[in-house]
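Project outcomes to date are best conveyed with an example. Our students and postdoctoral researchers have been running inverse folding experiments weekly, and each run begins with a structure described purely in tokens. The record below, which covers 194 residues, was selected by the lab manager from last quarter's runs and is presented without edits.
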């Protein structure tokens, strides 16, 4: 949604209601075998995985958001692959343990899992923080889809108790992202209780 708004792409949004299990219906699973959102449908072409969808959408309007020059694109992909390995599993664990378990009544928080995810996320946040001490955005001096990809899962920082608030450069960058019109237009109002 950040890419759609930033590039003002003509995309029709179909909301899949996760609480009602809209992502587990046979029709939806035929499109996305993992039964997860989002899924992009462009004519006969179906694409899953939000970051692959971001790249595909950005390529519809070529420009700096997803540069085509191989070295610049390499750095964008580097940080996205890095975050997929070193940030997303930890954020998913903390989202689940600190936020979703209570909402879906799935039992008590697992302290060992939380401690490990916090430790690993802090290690990754330090790497990102050092990088963001060198330039404005994740992959250099220009906003790219790597910024959107890494910032989006930080939206639940408070509720999921993500240990990223002490990193000064990271927080400067996250504030800049939150000031973007695309963020303000798309930030979900979280339906989960506080
Ligand atoms: N790696 C996938 C993750 C997708 C994902 O986990 N989506 C969540 C919502 S953010 C979901 O559909 N959860 C429902 C479920 O797991 O049942 C992507 O980036 O598209």
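After processing, the design step wrote out the following sequence:
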């Amino acid at each position: 949604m950040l890419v759609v708004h930033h590039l003002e792409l003509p995309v029709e949004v179909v909301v899949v209601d996760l609480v009602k299990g809209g992502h587990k219906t046979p029709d939806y699973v035929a499109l996305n075998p993992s039964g997860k959102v989002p899924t992009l449908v462009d004519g006969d072409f179906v694409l899953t995985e939000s970051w692959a969808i971001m790249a595909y959408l950005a390529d519809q309007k070529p420009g700096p958001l997803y540069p085509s020059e191989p070295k610049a694109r390499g750095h964008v992909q580097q940080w996205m692959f890095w975050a997929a390995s070193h940030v997303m599993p930890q954020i998913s664990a903390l989202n689940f343990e600190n936020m979703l378990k209570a909402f879906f009544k799935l039992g008590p928080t697992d302290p060992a899992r939380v401690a490990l995810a916090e430790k690993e996320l802090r290690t990754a946040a330090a790497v990102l923080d050092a990088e963001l001490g060198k330039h404005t955005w994740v992959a250099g001096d220009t906003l790219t889809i790597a910024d959107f990809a890494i910032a989006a899962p930080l939206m639940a920082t408070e509720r999921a108790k993500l240990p990223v608030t002490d990193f000064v450069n990271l927080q400067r960058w996250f504030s800049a992202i939150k000031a973007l019109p695309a963020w303000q237009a798309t930030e979900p109002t979280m339906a989960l209780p506080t």
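The pocket of glutathione is lined by residues 18, 23, 35-38, 49-51 (CB under 6 Å). The mean pLDDT is 96. The training component of this project remains on track.
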